[in-house]
Model the fold of this input.
Amino acid sequence: MIKRLFSSQLRINMLASVAATVINIILLAIAYPMYLHFLGYETYGLWLILATILSFAQLGNLGITSAIIKLVAEEHGHRNTKAILNYVTAALIVLLFSGTVTLILILLFQAQIISVFKLTYQNARIVSHLLPYIAVLTVFVLLTQVINATLSGLGRMDLANCILSGGRFISVSVAFFLLSIGRGLESLLIGSTCSYIFISVISLICVHRILKVWPFSLCGCQIHQYRILIRFAGGMFGGHILNMLLSPFNKLMLSRYVGVASIPIYEIAFNGSMQVRAVTGAGLRSFVPEVSRIGANLTKHGLERIRRINYRAIQIILLCGLPVHSAIILLCEPLLKLWLRKDFTPILPPVFRIMIVGTFISLLCVPAYYTLIGLGKVKHCFYANLIQIGINIVVVIAAITLSKQLVVSDVAVATLIAMVMTSIYVLLQKHRAIKALAC
Done:
């Protein structure tokens, strides 16, 4: 059945994505206890604040990387190498400009950014020292994402994901070495920098080998290609803004109303549950270039193939994802005790269970979400993210207003409710989009 529905390269991309996700989970399982052992909850919470600022800075991405995957996939289907080079160059130019603006804004408003988190004087000094380096790293990350996204658009999402996993391995390894010799919080920054250098270099080499040329064409970019890139990216950008605000907003509320030591609890529960979801859902991201290629010359047969791919994806989620998520819910507490040992806290298991339920429900809409992107229906992706962040904010504020306090489980429940409502919306819109195309 899988061989009949999925092309050979799509199967390879899906399997490689799952393998890369498993590797990432293993690295995550190693990294969290290691960071907590060397840094403790409060100091590690400072790094998560810096990572939150980096996430905000990623707004400078403008949705360009998602646009590059789709546009490169379409042009690759047409065997138009020149257009690919032009789109990649345009993306790099746009992100170099937006990244520079982001860098300047972070440096100009450094004090105001730090004050938002209500840190102690000593913690604020640590964050202030590292923030300029985070700002510079932001620009490089944006450019790296374009090259890696180009590789995905060329149909080699398997290589793109493997490279990202290699970068994660380098980040954890470098951080472990530096932490073990007493370099402290800056170890994580150096590890992240080494990771993105690796990702950019290897991705660039792979793209060069596929295209037989370097992916730059400074003299070939045309205005209409900038317009196409910006138009599609603009639709994704709004969704990215909202999606990226979700976790930073929750961390901000926890920092202000609970304390910085609560942030790692939320981070472990949220990120851990997302990694569990990714075991099944990682391969589904390959739908974007696949649907984009089918959609470039859409026929009745192609539309039916998109339907069947989505149906099969739901079957895979139910057969593989449901048992995994159920097992995690049942075995959550002993597994966390075994994993974190002396750093285990009783608050974590119930928060983790709530997150696991939410991420499984959201997993059901992943094929539909990527199908909407592949078909160019990005406005629905924006509305989905708007629903998610809107409901999350309303529930968190309601919890603070009604009880005059906030606990980590309140934030987890807000995330769960937001994921449920978003999933319902995305599934409905995918059904309507395919039905409209059939007419």
